[in-house]
Amino acid sequence: MANGREEILKGLADAVVEMDEDRARQLAEAAVAAGMDAYEAIMGGLAKGIPVGKFMIYHNHDDGMFWVYQTFDDEDAPHRAALLIKFSTSEDVADFLQMKGVKL
Asked: Taking the model in full, what pTM does it have?
């Protein structure tokens, strides 16, 4: 099992790319056990595994959360979107989008 900070972060990103939920869960637990900050594990690990693409942001005014979706344009599902992650502040959304190369 991964135990170094960088090894955990890389493993989290790889688990997302490979869609390996069990591995992602194991590494998330290792991150907690290592005392890693949850934001660092998400932004430095899990979010890096999310492919670059088109993003859509929805702000829920009832609870103040920001929902980030990735949209897909293909023949089978021309208007398909997948919920990627939700954030509590617009600054966190901006950090995520900038990390994915989106110019704000």
From this structure: 0.61
All structural domains of the chain with their residue ranges: 5-48, 51-99
Distance CA 11, CA 77 (A): 30
Sequence-distant (6+) residues with CB within 8 A of 14 are 20, 23, 49
Q: Residue holding tokens 């990735």?
A: 70
Q: What is the pLDDT of residue 28?
A: 92
Predicted local confidence at residue 73, as pLDDT: 66
2 vs 48: CA distance, rounded Å: 17
Q: Please compute, for residue 103, the number of CA atoms within 13 A of its CA located in the half-sphere on the CB side.
A: 0
Q: Are 43 and 96 in contact (CB under 8 A)?
A: yes
Q: What is the pLDDT of residues 24-50, one digit of tens each?
A: 999 999 999 999 988 888 888 888 887
Question: How far is residue 90 CA from its own chain's centroid?
Answer: 15
